[in-house]
Amino acid sequence: MTEPERIGRVVIAGGGTAGWMTAAALTRRLGPTGVSVTLIESSDIGTIGVGEATIPTLRRFYARLGLTDAEVMGATEATCKLGIRFEGWSGAGSAFLHPFGLYGQDLDGVGFHHYWLADRARGAEAPLAAYSLGASLAEAGRFTLPSPNPPSSLSVFDWALHLDASRFAAFLRAHAERGGCQRIDARIDGVRRDPAGDLAAVVLDDGREIAGDLFIDCSGFRALLLGEALAEPYEDWGRWLLCDSAFAVPTENAPDEAPPPFTRVTARSAGWQWGIPLRHRAGNGLVFSSAHQDDAAARDELMAALPGAPLAEPRRIGFRPGRRRRAWVGNCVAVGLSAGFLEPLESTSIALIETAIERLLGLFPGRVIDPALRDEFNEQTAEEMERTRDFILLHYLLSDRDTPFWRDARAVTPPDSLVRKLAVWDARGEFVRYRWEMFHPASWLAIYDGFGRYPRMLDPAVAAVDPSRLSQSLTALRATVARAVAATPPHADFLRRLDREIAA
Which residue ranges form the domains of the chain, and what is each CATH number? Predict the structure, then answer.
């Protein structure tokens, strides 16, 4: 590619988590090639920042930036996350954990869950979680780093972070600026377009124009560039996902209570409450449907269930679940909330930022943008958002809670893509796998089992296994997991070791 054909100037509209993750990644990858990255954000405009729970892909994202777990955790008051604990989703007292890891060991191409279900049908009572090291460690409040060379699938688990999103953005800002990113503190008041209709420059509130070859919209729900300037339509998914509002509030940590290595999500009357343990405080919030609960009732329900003293007044956040029809239009690419939003039930908001950045880097264009690159980006983005939507919707369809909200959530007509997955699982306990899925079979298995959704038929190969030998093998697997958990120190011990490593 000749010099005139190269992208020379990238302009990012908006900071926050999405903007600074994008800036850090682009300066790291493209800065050495001579691409300039400019980020424009106004100190007067706040960010949403409710997503403080992540999934393991985040650790790989910042590792590619040359950052370590210790550096990020120290800068963001982070704790470790082995999964998500769902409480009350199948009635009072019910609970299950969605871990980052596998269950048991497959045999001769047959999924482990087929063997476990066969043993269960004969009266065995051991839960599926007893065969997951990640789930068992989380329930026991223990943590250790996974083995880089696990001896078997029983030892396979992963982990993520609970972090302070505002501190994470500030940490990445410093990293991006060291890498050469220029920050402008200003408000964007408009855009100037070229004769072909693409963006030529953004116009600041002081009259300056910042020109660019490629523009990244990280302006949040407003979608200043993609939504307002380019008028890209928004697909509302409210017919599937009924929640459209949230209250968020930080609380003090109990002085004598160690932070658990999992996110807690608790079913409430018209939605669900999150609990995210950090080192210096806890993040809390209530996601709810405004059609089923008014603001006052939602606020009261949240405040009555806080685990500690509130550190601020609850902040209300309104949203529409869905996505822009296209995330890349002309020379403008939307990343984060400007591209779309799904409620934070499975901690996907930051993960969707990561994948958008990864796609952009993989399809990074020349100055004259080949439509094939845009089309591929848009197709991948749409499919990933739809697959993630289906996984979140699954939780509501399977819950048997009995309030108007939960009955209405269960009564929605699911998309055909989810109908097919459910039908194949129900028929034979197998997983339909699509392109660009964020959640793999082990995650779907965790949710199916958590809600007691089991198939009518198992793999026929299971019938060839002697029942007594199967029972003995499963007992041995559980014992292996239990020994590993017993030998693992508490999560709090790991955090103390981390403190010493940071101090050193």
Answer: 3-78+163-237+323-386 (3.50.50.60)
